[in-house]
Amino acid sequence: MAIKYRSVTVDGEHAITMEQFKAWMKTIDDDKDGKISKDELADAVRGNGGWFAGRKAKRGVGSADSNGNGFVDESEIRNLAEFAQKYLGIKIV
């Protein structure tokens, strides 16, 4: 599932807002439990044409999951956004 929001331009580069990122994260929550699993994130990365989706998803969830439950919940979305910016090249403003 690709990010299909209108991007904003920051310093000549396309970016999305944090609110758009949060809205996109809700769309990849397939079971609607309010948490993003490694598998849900891998499907999203794969849908965006990303290579090594499983590995990136595992690293992303591991990096964002501050309470150690194996999922990214609402309170950890900002952590996942930081990971996406640093390792996936997504610019979030």
Largest sheet: 2 strands, antiparallel
CATH superfamily: EF-hand
- Using DSSP, what is the number of strands? 4
- The CATH topology comes to Recoverin, domain 1
Number of helices: 4
Q: Describe the global form.
A: globular
**Mean pLDDT, all residues:** 84
Intertermini distance:
21 Å
Trace the largest sheet across and list its strands. 1-2
What Rg, in angstroms, do the CA atoms define? 12 Å
- Do you know the CATH architecture? Orthogonal Bundle
Order of helices and strands: EEHEHHEH
Helix vs. strand class: mainly alpha
Number of domains: 1
The level 1 CATH classification is: Mainly Alpha
Share of helical residues = 40-55%
List unreliable stretches of 5+ residues: 1-5
Strand content bin: 5-15%
Keywords: Calcium
Domain EF-hand: 16-51
Pfam family, one: EF-hand_5
GO molecular function: calcium ion binding
